[in-house]
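Table 4 source record.
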Amino acid sequence: MIHQTAVIDKSAVIEDNVEIGPYTVIGPETIIKSGTKIHGQSVIEYAEIGHNCEIFNFSSIGKRPQDLKYQGEKTKAIIGDGTTIRECVTFNRGTAAAGQTVIGKNGLIMACAHIAHDCIIKDNVIIGYSTGIAGHVEIDDYAILSSSIGVHQFCRIGKGVMIGAGSMVAMDIIPYVTAQGDRAVLAGLNVIGMKRKQMKLSEIEDIKNAYRVLFMSKLSLEEALVKLEDTQSPYVKEMTLFIKTSQRGITRP
């Protein structure tokens, strides 16, 4: 299952039923769990790869972060179970700031994407071709980022967000919306995504009403948040908490 031309560091831990293709380099302090397939000519170090992942050719996982403050401290890159990394992806390990860069379970990172140091990419996230994610970015569950997107460092992207191709994201994007453009602006709600998650129509209507209050009324953002304080919808509470905890400010229509 391990090609004879692969180079495996003596500190690496390779579980049973792992495939490693030709000319792949598995560097120091790497753990690869069972059921995972690594295609040829990839480089992986200081990383923990979950069960049943697939990493395609020429990917670079866990290499030194592109951060001038990095001083060689021991950090790592983590990939959750069932995640697919396509060709030529670069996924850097963390710095002292967070200690690790994380991709969650069942993700799809398409070819030539870049994920920088200290990012937290949660479960079931799709990142499209040639999209660049700067350092310290957080992307919540079920978000979809199309191709050729740029995300500024320290931005947060909420749960269930859909971002159109070529967008430049410079501020936080609240949950359950769509966004597009340079610089990205909100383009409405990701209703299709919510239906795919089998959310109830009443739950989707709650989110629609909250969106109207936040962005389509004559209320200031602070007044709109006050008006939504008594909501019983967990989804609306998630949206309002996201706004209240934003450090960069939020993207608006």
